[in-house]
Design goal:
Layout (H helix, E strand, L loop, with lengths): L2 H9 L9 E3 L7 E2 L5 E10 L10 H17 L4 E11 L4 H15 L5 E9 L3 E10 L15 E5 L4 H8 L9 H11 L15 E4 L4 H12 L2 E5 L7 H7 L3 H10 L6 E5 L4 H8 L3 E8 L3 E5 L18 H11 L1
Parallel strand pairs: 4-5, 9-12
Antiparallel strand pairs: 1-2, 3-6, 4-6, 7-10, 7-11, 8-10, 9-11
Helix pairs in contact: 2-3, 4-5, 5-7
The structure holds magnesium ion (MG).
Magnesium ion binds next to loops.
């Protein structure tokens, strides 16, 4: 198949659905006209062997490529609207393409997302998606807007994707039901409808690098600290079964495991029920924002928890907390 035919094959399945998509594919650039709204724009690249394992099904590659970008928009309280896709593939395989598109379409869920442009190149498999979303002016959830006294809450469950990555070392045909569930959470992450948080939450981030690392971005940008209850982190049945009684493994996976693409948000405690109802998914309080910088971890009984027990989390607020302890 020649490239032009391949592109026509791809784009022929993607008729625009939005009235504000004025011109999608077929020109030098797309034209979108969203009126008085603000636009959020994000780009993420997924490379085979780095961001998804070699041999990952095309459906899952398409699913994850779209989901991780929608998740970044959700973290800004933006509703995904348009995407462009730059696809680098070793060969032009229409079946692979169909599966890729089906996965991306499935990841969009009920959102009205139009593919409005892209590029195809020959090479090692990688996907770059640029996603544009709309958010009412003044209602985006910025990392720098957390306030002392805010509740910290997370959607869904944490630690599943990191556990799923461990399960991939096993023979995939021999996976247990729980292991298959964890692998599915890695390959087909749920992005949350963060647009529902516009005007409700103060700050938000999506959990791509691990809860503590990503929450750390909010704390640094807002110049605040947080007190987090490690045993309040929401736990899936699959992960509970997989770790059994190994509390250390559970805490480490939930606090530092990446790729869950849940939202971690801060909001006034009085807004919690409104946020929970608007999101349409589980939302769990895990702690609070405090004025003193640094991160304080505790166990469920309130006992302080030494973050060193979690190993490296890839950020330095623990060092800041240590320094504060020594100077006080
Ligand atoms: Mg992000």
């Amino acid at each position: 198949m020649r490239e032009l035919a391949f592109v026509r094959h791809l784009t022929g399945q993607l008729t625009p659905t939005r009235a504000d998509t004025r011109l999608a594919l077929g020109d030098d650039a797309a034209i979108i006209q969203p009126g008085n709204q603000a636009l959020a724009v994000t780009t993420d690249t997924l490379i085979e062997g780095r961001h998804f394992p070699h041999g990952t099904a095309a459906f899952d590659v398409g699913y994850k490529a779209l989901a991780v970008n929608c998740s970044d928009l959700a973290a800004m309280a933006a509703e995904p609207a348009w995407v462009t896709v730059a696809l680098t593939v070793p060969t032009l395989d229409s079946h692979w393409c169909d599966e890729f598109v089906a996965g991306a379409r499935a990841a969009g869920g009920g959102a009205a997302v139009d593919l409005i442009g892209g590029d195809t190149t020959r090479g090692a498999l990688s996907v770059t998606v640029t996603a544009v979303g709309t958010v009412d002016a003044g209602c985006a959830t910025y990392r720098h807007a957390a306030c002392a006294g805010d509740m910290v809450a997370v959607t869904g469950t944490l630690g599943d994707a990191a556990a799923g990555l461990s399960c991939l070392d096993a023979d995939t045909r021999a996976l247990t039901h729980d292991q298959a569930e964890l692998v599915s959470r890695l390959n087909r992450p749920s992005w949350r409808r963060g647009a529902a948080l516009a005007g409700v939450a103060n700050a938000a981030v999506d959990v791509s690098d691990g809860l503590l690392a990503d929450l750390g971005h909010i704390l640094a940008a807002s110049d605040v600290g947080a007190r987090i209850d490690l045993d309040a982190l929401p736990l899936s049945m699959a992960l509970a079964n997989w770790v059994g009684g190994d509390i250390d493994a559970r805490r480490r996976l939930q606090a530092t495991g990446g790729d869950d693409y849940e939202l971690c948000l801060t909001l006034p405690p009085a807004c919690f029920e409104q946020a929970q109802a608007a999101l349409g998914c589980a939302l769990t309080p895990i702690g609070e924002i405090v004025a003193d910088t640094g991160l304080q971890l505790c166990a469920g009984d309130g006992t302080p928890f030494d973050p060193a027990a979690l190993g490296s989390v890839g950020w330095d607020h623990f060092a800041a907390a240590d320094a504060a302890d020594k100077s006080s």
